[in-house]
Amino acid sequence: QVQLVESGGGLVQAGGSLRLSCVASGRTFSNYAMGWFRQAPGKERDFVAAITWSRSTYYADSVKGRHTISRDNAKNTVYLQMNSLKPEDTAVYYCAAAKTAQAMRARRYDYWGQGTQVTVSS
């Protein structure tokens, strides 16, 4: 069992920055691939970024070059640094953990956080 808790969401103006954090507890954190997803009202949950145990990173085209995912295994924490934010980035952001790289590639994550709201004003 893995529990994930996101934090760092809030209101920011377009062009600003925000850093989301996700703290994991339970099983060994370093064994999991971690990802960030987001969901806007009335829309599907979309992939944002992922990072493997070996720190390989992957990004959605919509955020590539603006967002950076990282992890600190000593702190059991994964981060999403969001720069040059746009109004279309407004969504609830979810942290997720995948037991295997195969599951990560298939976007089949095993554990999810409760989400944190990010609102970007014009």
Describe the structure.
The protein is mainly β and about 120 residues long. It has one helix and eleven strands; from the N terminus they run βββββββββαββ. Strands 2, 4, 5, 6, 9, 10 and 11 form a seven-stranded mixed β-sheet that branches. A four-stranded antiparallel β-sheet has the order 1-3-8-7, with no helix packed on it. A hairpin with a 4-residue loop joins strand 7 and strand 8 (about 75-80). The longest helix has 5 residues, at about 100-105.
Mean pLDDT over the residues? 94
SSE sequence, one letter per element: EEEEEEEEEHEE
Largest sheet: 7 strands, mixed
Q: What is the distance, rounded to the nearest whole angstrom, between the alpha carbons of the first and last residues?
A: 40 Å
Q: Which secondary-structure class do the elements indicate?
A: mainly beta
* Dominant shape: globular
Could you name the ranges where pLDDT drops below 50 across 5 or more consecutive residues? none
Strand content: over 45%
Give a count of the beta strands, DSSP E runs of length 2 or more: 11
The Cα radius of gyration reads 13 Å
Percent of residues in helices comes to under 10%
Number of helices: 1
